[in-house]
Amino acid sequence: MTTASLALCFDAPLQSWGTRSRGIIRDTTREPTKSGVVGLLAAALGKHRGDDEATEALANLHMAVRVDREGILERDYHTTQNVPTTEGKGHRTVVSERYYLADALFLVVLEGDPALLQELHDRVDRPHWPLFFGRRAFVPARPLLTREALSEQPAADVIATHSWLEIDVDVRNTERLRPATDRAPLRTVTDCTPTTPGAEPRHDHPVSIAQRTFRTRHVLVADTDLTDEMIRTGETSCS
Questions:
Q1: Which of 41, 78, 108, 149 is least surrounded by CB atoms within 10 angstroms?
Q2: Annotated Gene Ontology MF terms (predicted)?
């Protein structure tokens, strides 16, 4: 099968990628989860939450994430008053903590079936249902498709060579003038096999979105250099 990859830009003022978002603690990881990305892609295609076959096809895509801007981890303190008690004899106040990432920017690369990636390419900018990054209020700040969206490169090569998604001209100019050896590398999180040295488990591979069932996948956390060639002048690489 021909190698194919699809590169997406995840940019928004707020994003939240929870893996334990039940109860009063709504967490977020530091980068998009596979379950969150699959849910977003399923919404683009118009697949229902109970379509486990579509979920499996999307979850089986190899995923790699490059963190182009780490963002800031923030906590939101919520109180909800007059919540009925479980005994039905009164009301109570429920306190919850909700975490999210502010001003984060990610390059998400999917590798796999060329026909499926082409379909996703055709739909993410014209989604069946609205797209959001973890919570319905956290909508994309710019189009998801990058100018180099579809390629025949493996995801690892796209992560290492795709242009930096930073939109701030001053930030790009500062990094361009900085010696390459002084630039901070970009963190990467890539699907891998359990036997890969340094593999870390992540329990976010969706089996059924409707039933909220997941299995464990493994990822390798590493870095890639921010090279001169990745820092564009003029317009950024998002369409």
A1: 78
A2: RNA binding
Burial class (CB in 10 A: 0-12, 13-18, 19+), 152: exposed
DSSP for residue 218: E
**Residue given tokens 């930096």 in the structure block:** 164
CATH class of 4-20+29-68+108-233: alpha beta
Burial label, 47 (beta-carbon count in 10 A; 0-12, 13-18, 19+): buried
Residue holding tokens 């040295």?
197
Per-residue pLDDT of the chain (239 residues; tens, 9 = 90+): 578 999 999 999 999 998 876 667 788 999 999 999 999 999 999 999 899 999 999 999 999 999 999 999 998 888 888 888 877 788 888 888 889 999 999 999 999 999 999 999 999 989 999 999 999 999 999 999 988 899 999 999 999 999 999 999 999 999 999 999 999 999 999 999 999 999 999 999 999 988 889 999 999 999 999 999 999 876 665 55
Instruction: Match 């990467």 to its residue by tokens.
Output: 188
CA-to-CA separations, 88 to 79, 91, 92, 96, 206, in angstroms, rounded? 20, 8, 11, 21, 35
Sequence spans of domains, the chain: 4-20+29-68+108-233
Are 111 and 155 within 8 A, CB to CB? yes
